[in-house]
Amino acid sequence: MKLSMNLPVFEYDVRGLLMAFYPGEEITTGEDAAGKGISVLYGTGDPVPCRISFFSPGGREDAEVLLDLADRSRAKTDLKRVLYGILSRDTGKQLPWGTLTGIRPTKIPMAMLREGKTDPEILAHMEETLLVSPEKAELALQIAKRELQLLDRIDYEDGISLYIGIPFCPTTCLYCSFTSYPISRYEALLPEYLSALKKEIRWAGSRFRGKKLNTIYFGGGTPTTLPAPLMDELLREVEDTFDLTGLLEWTVEAGRPDSVTEEKFRVLRDHPVSRISINPQTMHQRTLDLIGRRHTVEDVKRAYAEARSLGFDNINMDLILGLPGEGAKDVEDTMREIVRLAPDNVTVHSLAVKRAARLNIMKDAYQGYTMDTTDDVMRMCASYLREINEAPYYLYRQKNMAGNLENTGFARPGTEGFYNILIMEEVQTIVALGAGATTKRVQGDLITRAENVKNVDIYIQNIDEMLRRKEQLFS
Ligand code: SF4
User: Fold this and answer.
1) Ligand 1, atom 5: nearest CA belongs to which residue?
2) CA 351 to CA 403: how far, in whole Å?
3) Which atom of ligand 1 is least distant from the CA of 169?
4) Is the beta carbon of 180 within 6 A of some atom in ligand 1?
5) Distance in angstroms (rounded) separating the CA atoms of residues 267 and 260
6) 433 with 328, same domain?
7) pLDDT number for residue 168
8) Residue whose CB lies within 8 A of the most ligand 1 atoms, among 168, 172, 398, for a mutation test
9) Fewer beta carbons under 10 A from the terminal one: N or C of the chain?
């Protein structure tokens, strides 16, 4: 598919919509749009005339729209609506999220709720203007309401959240696009990594003294790949450095069951960790083997039972829909097992194949596998989770998602992960430490970032530079 535009205005959004209608097709930029492609030509004037032409071996369709660029958001929506109509006619598809191609569909109902708009006004805007399906519009609205209630407890002005990244895992999953390295290759470096991390922790403790620490999130990678004594040292450093009296949540990802032991769970219990995540992704052994997890379904159950017996009362489990070779029936088997275990939250992801993932790099080897999901499968998951009193509380989208769907976090009331909402809604500063971590400074609508390098050796050697970047960000 070729895309030709005489100006790069809204190019990102046009591409996003093309990718949503034609998943997996390469979109190349061309001088003209011969063969199959789209051409977008902006003229001059106020409002700006714009001609959209769609070419395919079967014929050509042209449409025109006038864009008031003084209101960019409105102009973008107008352009995307016309483009949506053309692409929908070509493919015969309706997209569940309509013209929305960004990662945060709840942003719109959130903003409208804050403006005092009513439910019917919000739903009408989402369905009629943005072409979102009634079901997804309702979902986004309900989640936005729940998020607003939860965010009431967050101090935007005087509070911060803390992220600590441990970029190691037992092995690398096939679909992984995070900063993650096999722990076996880095064992000798762990003390140095920890000492660099502790330097960042002490810097943050002194830089944000007097601020309220609302949430802590240990992610990565899988933090529980650290040996128990190092985990203890790290948790203690955080506890000794920060005032935890305003803390709403301390989450530690224990995602890979092959990284946890009873000793490590005991270490977490020795500190005020309030929420952990044990992630099966699927309860099918053949899929776990295929995606390189190197643990068994039994390991998941064992880790979960150990954590429960030690008193963890807020456990999340992550699942992925659209894993290679898995259909609706496989997902249903997994859901039955999950409902039997009854974790407190479940995050249902739709597989998103990122460019850097092995699954993309080696895509030829997996051509024989289906990697798709549907709205019906997502509905089935929601219905199983209702049985254990879990309702959706946060939602986000990524590029190239299976079924063009979304990731949804479900939770029993009172067990929602605040940090998950904060990372999506970008309403509070998140100070992020460790290799590959990105600090986000939020000042009203202004969001600025400072990145730590992903490479572990470079991170350790240049820890002072990482601190300078953050110092600069907050200066
Ligand atoms: S557990 Fe998560 S971070 Fe680790 S390799 Fe798998 S996907 Fe990547």
Assistant:
1) 172
2) 9
3) 4
4) yes
5) 11
6) yes
7) 97
8) 172
9) C
